[in-house]
Amino acid sequence: MGGNVPFKKNKHFNIGLILTIIEGILSGSNYVVFYLLILMLQGRSLTVEQILGVAGILIVIFCIRVIMYSIGYTQNQIGGAAVSKNIRLFLGDKFKKIPLLRFTKGQIGQYVNTMTSDVNSYEQILTHKISNLAKNITLSVIIVAFISCLYLPAGIILLLFALLLIPEMWFSFRVVKKYGTIKNTTAAEAVSSIVEYVDGIQTFRAYGVGGIKNKTTTKAMHEFSDVSFKYEAHGIPINFIFNIINWLTVPLIMFIGILPWKSGEIDNVAYLLLCMLPMLLAKLIGVISVDLFSYKNLLISKNNILKVIKEPEENESEELLGNDNYEIEFKNVSFSYIQGEPVLKNISFIVPNQKLTAIVGDSGSGKSTILNLIAKYYEVNSGTILVGGKIINNLAAEQVLKQISMVDQDVFLFNDTIRENIRYARPDATDEEILLACKAANCDEFICNMEKGYDTPIGENGNLLSGGERQRISIARAILKNSPILLLDEATASLDIENELVVKEAIANLLKVKKTVVMIAHTLSIVKNADQILVVSDGGIAEMGTHDELLKRNGKYTTMWNAEQEIM
């Protein structure tokens, strides 16, 4: 992937930059015109017509500057916005290819910060910083050149002082490199903390830990404030010292201009400009210094964007699974979320084609991880996974997910209507197909009872629906997609008895069509009729067989079954 592709400048940006430079040149030409005007006034050789002519020239220059500035500014804005749009689209495409495991390793804050703050910062470079620098540098060069024409030694001195900007920037850039990067990283961590706090606010309050988590978020913000202070505290003194040295040029030029003025080498007007223009130049150099410091800081954002762009991607193989055999096989598969803490340890098993395989076991034993690996939400650390005899380790995740419908215990819904939330499963589905899917999922009745029916907005993540309603919509999605592989992850785990019965009926309707099904269940009675039951324990397959076969072995499954019967 070409790392610099999204940063490519466009014609709008280039036009804006050229016009800005021209506007800077015209701005400097004003001083030449004023100099000539004052000279003529001093010699009293001007007529009213000549004064009006000079005034007309100044007006023309002013009008051209206004036009140049307006068009240039507009083009910069358009060009910068277009580049930032391309970057966001590029990142959006990139996020689809980044392994999902990255999103579970504290990267969410970084990605959010990159997509928002970093892209905005880079847009600021294009729309403001580069054009401002170009204009001010152009104007500074013209002023130095003009002063050199008036009195060469003064121009040389001003040039030498202006060149002090180079070591000043070197020291400033060191500060940016050290503290700016830390500041950006801390900002990403603060964003992660805020996102977690907002997402979990209900849970935090329910368990009375809102204050504790708030302290955590506040701590992250304090850390960001501290590093921001250090950043400014180390950068400001450098800029302050440089500005003092820079402004010393004003009295120095006044002083060195006295002798040539007394000797008649330069006239009154020239000396007046030698006293005035260095002040303007000092101000311009100070602004350039600040803009360069800011520019370097903003480039950190570009580097952050590049880091995301250069992140490893999932395999891009486009090999299709499209056959009639959707048997799933794990061969010596190991996986861990954290290095050195394995969740699955060298497990092997086969999920027969168009059969129901149930997975049971203690909480945290690795049941859900198995489903996530089948769906390629994560990549195995070692071993191979096959679907229909094809190794999926090297297949693009999207190719595998095309063959999978998944019903999770934690249903994610978009802030959209019920109809569109279901249609996400198959974007080309008709309203009639959506209706049939909902009837099979036992959710048509409650949808029709809503004021707007299928066009009812359900709020952020479906917060306007109950848990049972959300789950049935998830099942409707799975029915509509009608994939040959169905993964069910404790779909009834968090429901009350009434909703559990309705959802169980919906799942039964879902299972009427022959599919390769892997089901995780929190109650064994749900899976006792499964074609195969896998008992997961401590990252491995402890037992495997049918309900009756496992009971005869009098092992872990039997213990779990007896314990459940005692409760019931």
UniProtKB/TrEMBL annotation:
It is a multi-pass membrane protein. The chain crosses the membrane at residues 15-39, 51-71, 137-166, 240-259, 271-293. One of its GO terms (cellular component) is plasma membrane. It comes from the Bacteria. Pfam families: ABC_membrane, ABC_tran. Keywords: ATP-binding, Membrane, Nucleotide-binding, Transmembrane, Transmembrane helix. Its main location: membrane. One of its GO terms (molecular function) is ATP binding. Residues 328-563 form the ABC transporter domain. It is found in: Cell membrane. Residues 15-267 form the ABC transmembrane type-1 domain. This is ABC transporter ATP-binding protein. It comes from Mediterraneibacter gnavus.
